[in-house]
Amino acid sequence: TLPILLDVDTGVDDALALIFAITHPSLDVRAITCVAGNAPLAQVVENTLRILDAADAPPIPVAAGAVRPLLSPGRAASHVHGEDGLGGLVLPETSRVPESVSAVELMRRTLAESDEPLTLVALAPQTNLALLLRTHPEVVDKIERIVFMGGSASVGNATALAEFNVWHDPEAAAIVLGSGIPIFMYGLDVFNQVTVAQDAAASLATGGSPLGVVVGALLGNRVALSEDSSLVYTGLIGDAGALCALVEPESLRVERRPVRVELAGYGRGQTVVDRRRYSGEDVIYGGVGDWSVIEVALDVDAPRYAALFL
Ligand code: BDR
Ligand code: CA
């Protein structure tokens, strides 16, 4: 099994990712940290705890982290995830409570106490990760790899150029990209492709299993995407795809590419992915602080990931 730390802003598709991570036998979730993003922090924490109950998860420690980005104002995505972050899905109250320590301390402690390096999976704005790197550089060598959902080599969603997680806290993403830790980017190029058909989601929701009902309802979250704001079924598994990437990397086309985060102007929050043919990346990019050569997922066998998720 692969031991992971999960950082989330639950979030309809973060909820799908949490359920996937808890139920997949080859993933071992050691701790979950929460950050403001799709919804305000307190709502993210509550949603996360309730989803753990729905997935019948073991007692995994959960901690609250940053209430807003490093420099940007906090801007929740209620137009996508609803005011409650779960698209209106009402879950029973939970007796789970968050840890009394911060997300940064929970990550530090979990890394420090682990016998083996851990994979850090970020499905949200990277504020907590940036704070960890700046506060506790001594645990960096316990991070095997950072896998993040965010960024794009093509279209944006928060703006025409920028993906939401990176756009929400561009400085944090720039700190993470500049950390020197091996990084894998699961961006919109693949995120937008993996969808579950409406009839499959509906049969989950009516199929009788309590967890299936929750997953079906989350997949059925309708998003105001069109210009007249009519509600559209997407069936996106979203953040859960970044966990599929851990389990089944061979279903992705991945390239090592130089990537930088734009911090100014209209492009603020854009990940510029240099897809030119080039030789000798060390000659061109060596020593230049603002470009980092990372792994970028550019294409996915989408039906395969949808099936894996189901
Ligand atoms: C990302 O932003 C959020 O809406 C989703 O949870 C995902 O992490 C997509 O841009
Ligand atoms: Ca998310």
TrEMBL record:
It holds the Pfam family IU_nuc_hydro. One of its GO terms (cellular component) is cytosol. Keywords: Glycosidase, Hydrolase. GO terms for biological process: purine nucleoside catabolic process. It comes from the Bacteria. CDD domains: nuc_hydro_IU_UC_XIUA. Residues 4-305 form the Inosine/uridine-preferring nucleoside hydrolase domain. One of its GO terms (molecular function) is purine nucleosidase activity. The keyword Hydrolase applies. The keyword Hydrolase applies. PANTHER family: INOSINE-URIDINE PREFERRING NUCLEOSIDE HYDROLASE, URIDINE NUCLEOSIDASE. This is Nucleoside hydrolase.
